[in-house]
Design a protein that fits this description.
The complex is a heterodimer of chains A (70) and B (647). With 70 residues, chain A is an alpha+beta fold. Chain A has a four-stranded antiparallel beta sheet with strand order 2-3-1-4, covered by helices on one side. In chain A, strand 2 and strand 3 form a beta hairpin. The mean pLDDT of chain A is 90. Chain B has 23 helices and 22 strands. In chain B, the strands form four sheets. In chain B, strands 10-22-21-20-11-18-19 form a seven-stranded mixed beta sheet, sandwiched between helices. In chain B, strands 2-1-3-9-4-7 form a six-stranded antiparallel beta sheet, with no helix packed on it. In chain B, strands 12-17-16-15-14-13 form a six-stranded antiparallel beta sheet. Chain B is elongated. The chains are: A alpha+beta (70), B alpha+beta (647). Chains A and B meet through strand 1, helix 1, strand 2 and strand 3 of A and helix 1, helix 3, helix 5, helix 9 and helix 11 of B.
Chain lengths: 70, 647
């Protein structure tokens, strides 16, 4: 288990957050994701084996930009 | 972390700047559009021929939609390719359809909506600008915390004072802090004394006295003396960094009442797309007026907005968190805000929560005090318990004898062997367990306990050689806070490992009627469970020893002790020890939750009323867009109004 914190740019509305939660939530190894529009951050709890590239790709595919990974 | 915060800061700031630029650009072209349309419509002043007018509107509208609205259009259309729709999809579709009617009007008989399309986009951008700014205001307290940290530090290196940037400070560095200056990072005082204003971090308004070996918190302000401080924590590990992280993470936690709104939000946009399509089909079929059908469909697209629903909770939570943070009340889990209103019982741990947690020896009874203290001091030296520390402090032995077979009996006492004599120190339960008779000492024990002392019975080879009374002072505002809670109708309960009599004496002093005494540390969470049978329970305790009980309670309120805050346990963390924080946390939670409910009500009501009106064709597309923008602005502004509540 690990915790990943992403800073995301381009979330203008409430459905943006829920889209990201949906698309990342489907990825294998992701146990939970919670997006805050107020802080522009997503907190992901995932298995250590999770494919970070897949997360990044899926978020950019639906139109948002990751500007920081912690 | 600093790097990250700088980034986060700029996301929002960049967005505000970018919306502002778009806003100016969009209106630069939209104002002439609005003017010619007004003249045309209401005063029937036709400056240009109809054809020329449409061409003009298309030209003026182009930059509004495709340059200043580019990102919205792009992000919206992305929804149609990825099937992850967002609200930009609605705006993009609405404005594009409206704009295309202008072009189409050259070929078929249809009303030109291109001017309207520009106005929709301009109002949309305006709405987003105002909303983003208001969202920024919602997080202003937290932004202040981010900026609170010192930028520079003066350190002593090779006997010389040099100024370095805060990132370069390392653990062990000696920092010099002059009067009026900010303490750069967490540390311990190695020289000097002063008082320190910690209000910005803990909410404590009265400066705290600091002397040799006192801990200090980074970002607090030194008042009058020069302090030499050894840095103990830097960067991510500081108290301030922890507080910020805690608040930020809390924003991603969910408040249960939001779940319904979230569900709606997640299917909102596709649903509206379908409704709008059906509206178009319905209107063109029944009214036989394609122009009107376009207008109505566009109005439906742009009036619907998931934002008010989606922002209802997070904005209120953000404002509430910020208000709390200013007072040292850190909301860790959004859920606690909702649960708090159902809490009926508040359980307080005694030591360190109601009392200061620094017990002192107040009573001694024996034939030979010196011998008693020597025995007790040798034994207690080996224990970490606060009571043990009180005894060690009192006995102040110069050298210690060897203790063999030392054992801690949790919640009861200690045993061991000194110079071949078997020593047992502890409470009555332990004496009973070990078959040591209390005969002749009952009245002394009774007397000590009645004065709110924790009684330690010291025995040597199964014979009692003396009794020590240790008492803990009650925090100044415990009584006041508990009184307030009693008056509000809460059932207040105190839980402690002490025996009934001592516990009752303390409870009586602070106004608590119910006492659960003689509870071993590991049993506390079971007691919480029992009380939960009669309704929701909040537990107030220090996060270190009481972690299981804090978790078991419906709302766990962890009390910080000076520079350490127990972040991992507790739904709400109080940065300073005062129980006034409990009262304030309850008021704040209730007020925040009320705000959330108000916001959700407005957001639901807005959509439930406005969407059917738009479907009915009674709302002009531009008015629809204005209403939409106002709906989310209203929610965010209403959340900001939470600040009026005094906590």
């Amino acid at each position: 288990m690990k915790k990943i914190k992403l800073t995301i740019e381009g979330m203008h509305c409430a459905s943006c957050g829920s889209n990201i939660e949906k698309v990342v939530g489907k990825i294998r190894g992701v146990n939970s994701i919670s997006v805050s529009l107020m802080t522009n951050k997503a907190i992901i709890e995932a298995e250590d084996s999770v494919n970070m590239e897949e997360i990044k790709k899926s978020i950019s595919r639906i139109g948002y930009k990751i500007i920081n990974v912690e | 972390m600093d790097h990250n915060h700088a980034n986060n800061e700029s996301v929002e700031e960049r967005e505000i700047i970018s919306w502002k630029r778009k806003l100016i650009g969009a209106w630069f072209f939209t104002i002439p559009i609005a003017l010619v349309m007004l003249l045309d419509k209401f005063f029937e002043i036709k400056i240009f021929s109809e054809q020329l007018m449409i061409i003009l509107l298309l030209i003026l509208g182009f930059p509004v939609i495709f340059i200043f609205g580019f990102q919205t259009i792009k992000s919206g259309l992305k929804g149609f390719t990825s099937f992850y729709f967002n609200m930009d999809s609605l705006i993009a579709l609405g404005t594009l359809i409206a704009y295309l009617t202008g072009i189409a009007s050259f070929f078929v008989l249809i009303q030109d909506y291109s001017g309207i399309s520009a106005m929709i986009m301009a109002f949309f951008i305006t709405g987003k600008f105002v909303e983003t700014k208001a969202r920024g205001r919602a997080s202003q307290e937290i932004k202040k915390l981010l900026e609170l940290g010192a930028k520079k530090a003066r350190i002593l290196r090779n006997k010389q004072e040099i100024e370095i940037s805060i990132e370069e400070v390392q653990i062990g560095d000696i920092l010099i802090v002059k009067p009026g200056e900010k303490i750069p990072t967490d540390g311990v005082i190695i020289k000097g004394q002063s008082s320190v204003n910690e209000s910005m971090v803990t909410g404590e308004s009265i400066p705290v006295d600091k002397k040799l070996n006192s801990n200090v918190i980074g970002a607090t302000i030194n008042q009058e003396g020069i302090l030499y401080i050894k840095a103990t924590k830097v960067g991510k590990d500081t108290f301030l960094a922890h507080i910020i992280e805690l608040i930020e993470e809390a924003q991603s936690t969910k408040v249960p009442i939001q779940a319904m709104a979230d569900k709606i939000t997640s299917i909102f946009v596709p649903t509206i797309l379908i409704i709008s399509m059906l509206t178009f089909v319905g209107w063109s079929f029944f009214s036989q007026d394609l122009s009107k059908a376009f207008g109505v469909a566009v109005a439906v697209l742009v009036i619907a907005c998931p934002c008010a629903l989606g922002l209802a909770t997070p904005t209120a939570l953000m404002v509430g968190s910020g208000m709390g943070a200013k007072k040292g009340i850190l909301i860790r889990k959004g859920e606690a805000i909702q649960t708090m209103k159902n809490v009926k019982t508040i359980i307080f741990d005694k030591t360190g929560t109601i009392t200061k947690g620094n017990p002192e020896v107040t009573e001694i009874y024996s034939k030979d005090n010196e011998h008693l203290l020597e025995i007790a001091g040798n034994m207690e030296k080996l224990s970490e318990h606060p009571i043990a520390k009180a005894i060690v402090k009192k006995t102040d032995l110069k050298d210690y004898k060897q203790v063999k077979n030392f054992k801690v009996i949790s919640g009861k006492g200690l045993e061991g062997t000194i110079l071949g004599k078997k020593i047992v120190i502890g409470n009555e339960v332990l004496m009973n367990d070990k078959n040591i008779s209390l005969k002749g000492f009952e009245s002394v024990i009774n007397d000590f306990e009645g004065k709110a002392n924790t009684v330690l019975i010291v025995s040597e080879n199964k014979k009692i050689i003396g009794i020590i009374g240790v008492a803990d002072t009650i925090k100044e505002d415990s009584k006041n806070a508990i009184n307030k809670l009693n008056m509000e109708g809460y059932r207040t309960v105190m839980i402690t490992g002490d025996n009934e009599k001592t516990a009752k004496a303390i409870a009586h002093q602070v106004g608590i009627k119910e006492v659960i005494a003689k509870v071993l540390p590991e049993e506390k969470s079971n007691k919480v469970k029992e009380l939960q049978k009669r309704g929701m329970v909040a537990f107030v305790g220090d996060g270190i020893n009481d972690a299981p009980a804090l978790k078991q309670a419906n709302v766990g309120i962890a009390i910080g002790t000076g520079t350490d805050i127990a972040i991992e346990s507790g739904d709400i963390v109080l940065a300073r020890g005062s129980l006034r924080g409990v009262v304030a946390a309850i008021i704040l939670s209730k007020a925040t939750f009320r705000k959330i409910k108000q916001n959700l009500f407005w957001a639901f009501a807005y959509n439930v009323i406005m969407i059917p009106l738009a479907i009915g064709g009674v709302i002009h597309p531009v008015l629809a867009e204005i209403a939409m923008a106002l709906s989310s602005i209203t929610v965010v502004t209403n959340a900001n109004l939470l600040r009026r509540k005094r906590i």
